[in-house]
Design goal:
It is built from two helices and no strands.
């Protein structure tokens, strides 16, 4: 600890500090999750409504997979 820092020696004080630290961590993680979620939702609003709209879009898939076979058979 640095100069002038105070630390509790009582078990109740240590438990309180631990709860406050984890509470702060959960608060920050909640904010980060909320921001990430809002960014993801904004990107997903332009999703196609059906398979026919995929014909006009660039579509990626894994080589030699069932998805590739489906796309080749129905669209490309």
């Amino acid at each position: 600890m640095g100069y002038g820092d105070n630390a509790s020696v009582a078990k109740l004080g240590k438990a309180t500090a631990l709860i406050l630290m984890f509470g702060g961590l959960l608060f920050i993680l909640g904010l980060a999750a909320r921001i990430a979620s809002s960014l993801t939702v904004k990107q997903l609003t332009g999703n196609p409504n059906g398979f026919n709209e995929l014909k006009d879009r660039a579509v990626g898939t894994i080589d030699k997979s069932g998805t590739e076979d489906f796309l080749l058979e129905h669209f490309f």
